[in-house]
Amino acid sequence: MSWWSTASIRVRLTTWYTVGLSLMMVVYATATFVAVRHEFLEQLDDQLHDDFETAEGFLAPAPDGRIAWSSDRHHDPDNDEDRGSDVWSAGGEAIYRSTASAALPPVAIAAATATPRYESVTTEESRWRTLTGTSSVGGRAVVLRVSRSEDRLRAQLREILVVLVLGLPLVVALAGIGGYVLARRALTPIDHLASEARRITAERLHERLSVPNHHDEIGRLAAVINDTFARLESSFEQLRRFTADASHELRTPLSVIRGIGEIGLHETRTPAEYKEAMGSMLEEVDRLTTLVDTLLRLSHGDAGTVRLSRESVDVGQLARDVVSSLGILAEERNQRLRIDVADSISVTADRLVLREAITNVVDNAIKYSPRRSAIEIRVHGDGDRAIVDVADEGSGIAAEHRQRIFDRFFRLDEGRSRDSGGTGLGLAIARWAVEANGGHISVDSGPNGGSIFRIVLPAGAATIGEHHEHPTQHRRGSS
Ligand code: ADP
Fold this sequence. Notes:
It is built from nine helices and 14 strands. The protein is α+β, with helices and mostly antiparallel strands. It has a five-stranded antiparallel β-sheet. Adenosine-5'-diphosphate binds next to helix 7 and helix 9.
């Protein structure tokens, strides 16, 4: 693994920041130096231009007909050893040569023009900037050259360069240290979060990270992690409850089997008694088998390994089938089981799985409603949804239990559920079956105090036909 990928974020941030800043500083320093140099050279040329005009003023025709160089002390450019002036006649004869510019080569007279020309000239000792042009003194042409040494200017530029070159690493180093300190300060709360999060183990899932400021990034991160802990805690709790409930459910029939066996072995029995004991044992084994099968199916459902064979299913027809197969149970309890198919709607679903969901809900309505009550199943469409409502006149389900009623092993009345052969898994299976088919199941209270279970399915290729009503009433005399 490279150093880069193992380095901490603060080191990587500081490195990026320092490299970026160095590049920007190099560009900035170079641009500054180039601009200053350009400005200095322009100033030098301006000064040469002024010198040229001053020098022209020093030239005057002498009484002997020659051109004379008369300089005044205060304006004499020759007072300065960095400056020089040279004058030649048109014929190339030197009229005046200052001492400062003595080392400069003479100008090519033929090349001199009326428009002054700037040039840089290098002598053995130094570099000079010159301005050469022609001028007219008393009607006679002269070639005038003014010059200034570039040495002072170059020395100043060198100083600036030294300051820039030495200052740049210093600035970058200071900025790098500052960046590291800032990155450290900004990231310290994350280290703090990490150590707090490490403290929260499976046994301490109720604890939460402290959120100093809900509005900044760290606060939002802590809030997200806290939400995750809350979900984890509820999943752990569900799992713990499920394991405890499942063990309990499995232990009850096992204890019954053991009890029957022990009683049977205690003393000698008649063959008829043994037969009865074995029958009871088999009943419990059946119960265990159903329980284990259902649990297995639910766990396959959780793992998403159940293969659904989807086809077009007429929901109304499916509900009628369920009603006709459960009718006998309602009859035994002298209940009126009524079905009303308002619309003929097809859904794309696994027929057997969907049938099981409707069966479990209708079976519960029969089990948990009083004798001689009415149970009504209504199939209707609502836009692009198919709805199956199962309403009963039972004791209803309190609002606080309506969500948990679909949890595994959740029962309102344990004894009654067990007496009626319930495993506490019927609605869990129903919810899985409906959701696997893309639907949703919920429960509400009915107008007469009972409950209404509602299965909503997305209608595929919906065909809403004419109104069919098939009241299927199963009656039996009171028992
Ligand atoms: P069970 O095997 O106990 O019937 P279910 O998962 O089917 O398990 O139902 C869970 C619990 O919900 C039942 O024990 C019962 O207390 C309650 N319940 C289900 N359906 C109804 C209903 N129609 N009316 C009242 N209570 C119901």
